[in-house]
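sry for the spam today, last one i promise. struct tokens for design, 316 residues
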């Protein structure tokens, strides 16, 4: 712990890619609020949410319109369990892509029921924006951000960085042909690995612009409040100063890259020394360790890990 800041706690919320059949099963056995939260989401959507999580199939769970409400529900369920067990409020929140909506729910900026319906619609719009097979994403490992961007700029067609996840770890997105050409350029430039991602669309690039039109209407139909805990936003790694800015950041996020490295760095600059990954899996824990190995990251999706994190208040 440095002298400039007291120990400060940050919560982070994962996005698509963290979903697996059977996730949170053990937590649901120990904490009734987990199953209750999934049942609440199921009532909103008219879908058997807990059955989808506990039984699958994985292919259905991976459909964007299902993935998004499932992961939001998982994060909210863990947050509610954390609160029920007396876990302290964090000082900063941030979510990766879809996870930004989980952060807003937990910051009391958006009701859980509204958020479930909103991200279900968001997933549909994103899935429909680009016909299946016409878009692609790929993870580029081992190149600086500006080199990846330059490789994308050097090919014809739509392709650009979509997620700045950690140093030397960038995801690109765009049309399938352009992504394939950009991958070749990245390999030629010395990328350690270039891995095509199994996703249902090219998220966080300009091909998502058509989805913004319908989503703007959906966003206008829900009640947003200013977060009671500051939320660091993906598009610019800043905290919104008013509701108009908050809406704009959510809308722009669909077609602009996730600045995850900057989000985590911003939280650390604001004094965050310890993180809790509030959601399924350990994806964000891995990224945070790549960004700053000195920071502690707790995962709370398993009962023993959850209990240990509650005992320390999520601190180091």
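last one done:
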């Amino acid at each position: 712990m440095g002298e400039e800041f007291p120990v400060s706690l940050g919560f982070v919320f994962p996005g698509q890619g963290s979903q697996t059949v059977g996730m949170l099963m053990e937590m649901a056995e120990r904490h009734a609020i987990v199953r209750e939260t999934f049942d609440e989401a199921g009532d909103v959507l008219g879908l058997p949410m807990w059955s989808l999580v506990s039984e699958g199939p994985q292919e259905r769970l991976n459909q964007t319109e299902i993935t998004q409400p499932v992961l939001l529900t998982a994060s909210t369920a863990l947050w509610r369990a954390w609160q029920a067990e007396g876990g302290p409020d964090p000082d900063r929140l941030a979510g990766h892509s879809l996870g930004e909506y989980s952060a807003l729910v937990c910051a009391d900026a958006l009701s859980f029921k509204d958020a479930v319906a909103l991200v279900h619609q968001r997933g549909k719009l994103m899935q429909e924006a680009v016909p299946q097979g016409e878009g692609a994403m790929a993870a580029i490992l081992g190149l600086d951000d500006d080199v990846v961007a330059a490789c994308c700029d050097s090919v014809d067609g739509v392709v650009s960085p979509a997620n700045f996840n950690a140093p030397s770890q960038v995801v690109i997105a765009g049309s399938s042909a352009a992504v394939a050409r950009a991958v070749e350029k990245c390999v030629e430039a010395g990328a350690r690995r270039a891995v095509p991602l199994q996703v249902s669309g090219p998220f966080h690039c300009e091909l998502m612009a058509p989805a913004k039109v319908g989503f703007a209407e959906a966003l206008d139909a829900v009640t947003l409040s200013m977060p009671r805990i500051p939320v660091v936003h993906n598009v610019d790694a800043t905290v919104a100063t008013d509701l108009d800015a908050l809406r704009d950041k959510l809308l722009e996020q669909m077609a602009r890259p996730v600045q995850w490295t900057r989000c985590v760095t911003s939280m650390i600059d604001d004094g965050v020394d310890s993180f809790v990954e509030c959601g399924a899996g350990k994806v964000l824990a891995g990224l945070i360790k790549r960004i700053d190995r000195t920071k502690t990251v707790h995962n709370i999706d398993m009962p023993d890990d959850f209990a240990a994190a509650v005992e320390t208040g999520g601190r180091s």
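DSSP finds 14 helices and nine strands in the chain. ok im logging off now
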